Every structure is written in structure tokens, then in C-alpha cells.
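Hey, weird one. I pasted the Thioredoxin domain-containing protein sequence into the form twice and got a warning about non-standard characters only the second time. First submission, copied straight from the form history:
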Amino acid sequence: MHKTPSPYLNILHECNINWAPYSEQSLKEASMQKRMIFIHIGSINNIDEREKVLKLFSNKGVSALLNRYFVPIAIDIEDFPEIGQIGFDLLSITEHFITLPVNIFMLPDTVPVACFPNTTAKNFIELAHNAVKAYIKKKNTLERAGAHLKRLLEKTGRIPEKMPPFKIRDKLLHAYVRNWIKRAEEIEKGIGEAVRSIHPRYYIFLLKYAYTYDKTDILEQIRERLDRLYYSAMFDTVEGGFFTQYSENDYNKPLFEKQFSENIQAAILYSMAYKCYGNKHYKEAADRTIEHIENRYASAGGGYQASVSLNVSPEKSTYYKVSVADLKKKFAKGYCKVAGILGLDTAVPEECPQIVKNSAAAAGMTPRTREKLLEIRKEREAELLVDERVMVVGNALYACILPIFAKSCGHKMAGYVKKAEDIVEYITTQLIDKDLKMHRYLYSSYGYGDSTLLDYALILTASILLYTVTGKEKYNTLATGYTSYILQNYLCHENGMFLKHNKNEKQLIPCSREPIIDYIKYSANSIMAGNLLLLYKINGNEYYLKLFMQQIYNVSPQLTGAGPYLAGWALQILNYLVYENGKQKS
């Protein structure tokens, strides 16, 4: 297998499959050899899914099929997010739940014919056999089916044309939120046993909406959800920070993965909650999450690393767990009090490790108690798997939220603004060349991958916000440069949206995408809409407002029934309405 900084792909290397890189050469070989293509798209974060993937690809029948009949390609979604988006769109088209990993069978010319999430070896072999059989014996039928699927894919990935203008009113958001809440219970039931995520970005919009329009019932629902999340096993009371995913509705079964970007959003969510409700434990949650980010993700060479997960199953791992016997060794007579703070059941056998739960009592935990608990964990660090890549997306997002976090929590701004400036300086010196082109991430002092619209949109946001906070001309210059770069290389004049890839460079993707849907992050187009509105507020350039409004016109017809998948757009519409209402009042 090809050399890669991706920890996920390095794990897949353990399987007896002749994985090829996603490259022009690999696709050319598939076409020349007239072999079907199998693409697997995954992520390092979820240990449960990772183990299922390893079990699948370690199966001799699966590996034999893939090696004989396919050009098998494994992709880390962080390396090629646009392929990941195609995978999510295909899952949606084929009526599967949106999740990682994604598996795609393609014809040699990269036309997709089937897409499905993780599955058993038995099902995979059956699907692969059927695909190969159809390719050999019913090629024309398979090609027609693939062409139909590709047409559907092209329709989902692009806004077909500019939509006509209309008056943007509050009632659009009211209808959107009503529909979202109405469907929420159905969505939960539909998930079944699927992995759930905390999705702080959804609640950021809902909280701002409810606070803006004084929706007391929604404010109460959000307050209850935030309390349940914080006072549960999902918040790590020892190290701080939130786990990203869980497998039970009551938050008592975390999958013990922490993502830098999700914790950034959790910190800003709880800082907003503190500003809205005034509850001190929300400030505590935000502060401890930022503390966790600084302690766990900060890279020695600069910037912040991507994630921390486990390399053994949650059932076998003891890193995030503690037993009564552990506490007896560390705390002697005081172990009962510590056990109570950690939510341990003293009726459970002493040697049995238990999941630690956060509680109101944990606020009184002394620094020395926490140090001793960290000493226990230190002995078990071999169980951790750290993704050491320094991603532009997460780092730029962190630079964006630091000044906002400081203001919401009542901290002195200077230190947080300086930290944000350091991050932007790091990105601009380490990951950007003289032509403003960026790598997606840094690993061992080397840049990897070509950045997509999301990377550029977020570094633009950080530049704009730092200019408004500091007034330093260098950030205005950076913002001006990246605005021009994005408009030149990503704007699609036919419909007013932005492409995910650089339109002036050759692409390896089967279909162009305009990132609109919030699958696992805010969509890049919604972030660009926010940038355009910010730029208009700063310099009054009507061109930016015109572009912003066209994007809103294009997306609004899809908004009402979209639920959380268009939360980023709803947030930008809310920002616009707040701005317009403020102008009218003044």
C-alpha cells in the first residue's frame, strides 16, 4: 500500500488487500484493464466502526474478490472530502442512513453503480458477486443503471440555476424550526441502533434562534439537552472535553473519541448558553473544553492535532474508565468520596473498571484529585490513537471562535485574540504558498493534500474576524486576497454558488459538487455566505450582498423540510435578519 500520513489508511494496510491510492494513475489503470473500481471512504475516529471495517476486509473471501475483480481504493475522508460528499449523496439517493464508512462500486470509467454503508462479509461478498456478474453478463444494463445513478448524483450536487428573488422574512425560519422539531422524534426512531453524534453546530443555530425570538419552549428544551449532555459520561470530567459519538440515547455509552473540531463547537455552544441562561456550569463546561483543547491537541511544532480515539474496543479499554480498586490505591481512605464524584457504583466488584460520569459534584474536585486521576490514565496511554495531522479546517475554526468564546464567557480578550493570531500566522507560514494555494494539513513538517473550498472559506472567516477585532491591516490584506482567490477559482457564475473544487484545475472526481448540505460539518457554501455578509457589513460593497442574497434565494426552497442538514444556512439567514432588523430599528 502507498505511504500515507493517514492513521486510518495505515490501519487498513493490515488487511490483505492490494489497496491503490486515489490518483489519476489508479483510475487510468482501472480503465485500461477494464476492471471495476471499489472505493472505501472512512475515518479514524469511531473505534467501533473501525473494528467492523477491519473484520470485513480481513475476511479472505472479501479480499480475494477485491484483489481479483476490482481496483480497490481506500480513502480517508480528510484527504478527499469531495469524494466523501459524493459518498454521502449516494447514500442519500439509495435511501441509506448518512454515515461513515461508505462503500462504492464503480465502472472502470468511474460511473457509480452501487453504494452502501458498512456491512457484514456475507452481504459484501453477495453485493460484489452481483456487481461483477452484472458487469460480465449484463454490461449494457449495468451501464444504464450507472448512468441513471450518475444523473441523480449530478442533480443532488448542484443548484441547477439562479432562483428568483423574494423577500426574506422571519416566517421562513419559524417554518423551518417548526418542521425540524416536528420531525426530530421520527428521526430519532429511524436511527435505531445507529451511532449518534452530539452535533453542537445544530444547537448553536437553535439556541441563537430561540434566544433571538424569545422562544421559551425551545430554550427550555435546549437547556435540558445541554444539562443532560454535560452531566453524563459524554463529558470527560477528568481531562475535560466532550466525546463526539455515543450509542445510547441517555449518553451513558460514549465511543471514547474526541475530535478537535467538535470540541471547538461544543466550547462555543456552551459559552453561548452561559450568555443566554447565565448558568455557571455552562461557563465551566466551555472553559474546561478549551482547557482540554490546549492540553490534548496542541502540537509541539505549532497548530492543533485532529483527534484522539482508542486503538482497542471500548469494552476492553480502561483508559477512560476507573475501578474502585484503582481509587483505593491512589486515595486510600478518601476513595469513597472520589468514587461518588465520578459516579461509580460501589456495589460493582472493586476490580471492575467503570465508565466515569460527570456530575455537579465534580465542580468541587480539587486539582490534586484530578492530578492523581490523570496519573492512573498516564499508565494506560498506549490505548490511545492520536491523529497528529494539523488540519486547516479545525485550526482556522479555532481561530474564529476564540475571540467570541472570550467575549461570551467574560474573559479578557487579549490572550485569546493573540492565540487566534498565532494560529492564522502558523497556517499562513506553514501551509500556504506565495500564490495563496493551501495544503489541507501538515504532518511531520510536510504539507499534504489540496485544500477545498471549506479550507479557504474558514481561513477567510478567521481573517475577517481578526480584522474586525484587532483593526490590523494585515488581516484586511489577507481577507482581500482570499476573497479574490475564492471568487476567481470557486464561484460558479451560472447559479451564484461556489464549487467545492478549484474550477481552474484538473479534478479526479466523477461529478462536480457545490457543498450545500451540512453532513458532518457546516457546508462550505453556507460559510461563504456568512463571509459575504461579513464583508458587506465591513465595507458596504453591494456586490457581496448581491452574491449572499442569491445564495439564500437558491437554498431557501429546500430549507423548510431539510431539518438539521441545512442548519448552517438557517444560521446565515438568521444573521441576515438580525442585521436587517437592527438597521430598521436604528
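That's the output from the first submission. The warning seems to come from a hidden character in my clipboard, not from the data itself. The domain at 7-157 is CATH 3.40.30.10 (Glutaredoxin).
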